[in-house]
Amino acid sequence: MALAEFLKQLDALVAAATAAFDGAADEASLEAARIEYLGAKKGRLKAVQKFMGAVGAADRPAAGKRLNEVKTQIETAFTAAQGRLGAVENPRRTGEVTAFDPTLPGRSLRLGRLHPITQTIEELKGIMGRLGFSVAEGPEIEDEWHNFEALNIPLEHPARDPLDNFYLAVAGAAAGTLLLRSQTSTVQIRVMEQGPPPVRIITLGRVYRPDTADATHYPMFHQMEGLLVDRQVTMADLKSVLRLFAASFLGSDVHIRFRPSFFPFTEPSVEADFQWHDQWIEFGGAGMVDPNVLQMVGYDPEQVTGFAFGLGIERLCMRRHNITDIRALYRNDVRFLRQF
Ligand code: DAH
């Protein structure tokens, strides 16, 4: 075949293909035109291409060059038509596959979960709620009155050492010295300041101490504080409440014991230990609210008495789940947290 004849056929092909693609009114006719012109086996471009071999050897480079141009032109015309019909958005729609297959399984959402400490807090609220304690809250940034003074902790007491507390340097603070609370006992004062007895509350929240983190220490941890003030409250009530609490949380086989201790805001003071699985575990401090504290908030110690306790929540949570390193709770590794 002469080169001129071959080129003429290519020109005719470009014209026809472009017209067909441009004229396609919907995706079906575009697809039909694609098969007619660009079809891999019986397409008309393929058919013309076969004549290449018949072109004289000297003319073949020119014929090949033009063939490539034509191919690009036809493909460009097709892509343009596809874009015009909006089919390009979803290439699958040009084939037999439909865009939406209602028989495919849905994508399941990955559910998160509550942090083990949050779970423990919710459970503690439930147990203490059934014993008649309502939940009170207080700020994590405290003044020295609520964290120390009103709790009978005088200025010279070692608990107020700057090395044992996160004091905050707030420029020109009118409120006086502020610190991150080192205990939830602050909330005892806040609640009693707000209203007269009787009082029956728990408070659960974060406390802060500049301890170096190790398996059993962390500079931030959680406490549950309890306070009950009423007429004729005795140490027997304290022991009963803590025993009921321990039995609800750990099981009825738990034992409880008090060891004499000292806290400035209770008199007498005790350390409360729970025995569980043949082991005695120290769970926190407790005692009868010191008359000085009652006086400080305007209560009459001749009329009312009360008990208070403060327990470490991490310890309860770790014991329950056999967690041996407190740092694991705060590393935010979901592979660990997912287990609870
Ligand atoms: N606030 C104490 C602490 O952080 C714990 C405590 C002891 C709380 C005795 C109390 C209590 O309410 O009566 O170490």
Q: How would you describe the overall organization of this protein?
A:
The chain is α+β, with helices and mostly antiparallel strands and 340 residues long. The protein has two domains: 3-97; 116-138 and 183-337, BirA Bifunctional Protein, domain 2 (2-Layer Sandwich), CATH 3.30.930.10. The protein contains eleven helices and ten strands. The protein has helices at 3-23, 27-38, 44-49, 60-84, 116-130, 144-147, 186-194, 235-250, 291-296, 313-321, 334-337; strands at residues 134-135, 141-143, 166-168, 178-180, 199-208, 220-230, 255-263, 266-276, 279-289, 305-312. The strands form two sheets. A seven-stranded mixed beta sheet has the order 1-5-6-10-9-8-7, sandwiched between helices. A hairpin with a 2-residue loop joins strand 8 (266-276) and strand 9. Helix 1 packs antiparallel against helix 2 and helix 2 (27-38) runs antiparallel to helix 4 (60-84). The longest helix has 25 residues, at 60-84. The chain is rod-shaped and about 120 Å long. The two termini are 80 Å apart. 3,4-dihydroxyphenylalanine binds at residues 183, 185, 225, 263, 266, 284-287, 308-310. 3,4-dihydroxyphenylalanine (DAH) binds at residues 183, 185, 225, 263, 266, 284-287, 308-310.
